[in-house]
Q: What sequence folds into this?
């Protein structure tokens, strides 16, 4: 299928599909005219990419995980569990950091609002 067809089928923009290809997440074959053609597995590959991106994984990690899928779904081989757990722990750390930043900003807003209130 051509890139436009893949875009319509998956709801992912042509530009983003090209980006996935540049990142080594998606492969295509070029016609003699230079047009990209994707195999029948491309829609499932795009769905996997979207699922992993939604899980907060960077494209570098996704590229490493792509060969590790089992079957047609989003289940991965057990050999990547440590990698997934590390990513999960990193998300927990980022959430904790953002929570602290949110609390600090809330304190600043509260103090500023209190100082601006008429006496």
A:
């Amino acid at each position: 299928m051509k890139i436009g067809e893949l875009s319509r089928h998956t709801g992912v923009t042509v530009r983003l599909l090209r980006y996935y290809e540049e990142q080594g997440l998606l492969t295509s074959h070029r016609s003699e005219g230079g047009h990209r053609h994707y195999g029948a597995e491309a829609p499932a590959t795009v769905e996997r990419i979207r699922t992993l991106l939604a899980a907060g994984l960077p494209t570098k990690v996704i590229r490493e995980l792509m060969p590790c899928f089992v079957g047609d779904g989003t289940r991965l081989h057990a050999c990547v569990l440590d990698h997934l757990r590390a990513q999960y722990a990193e998300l927990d750390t980022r959430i904790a950091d953002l929570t602290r930043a949110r609390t600090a900003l809330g304190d600043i807003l509260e103090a500023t609002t209190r100082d601006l209130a008429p006496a």
Summary: The helical segments are 3-10, 14-22, 42-54, 59-65, 81-116.
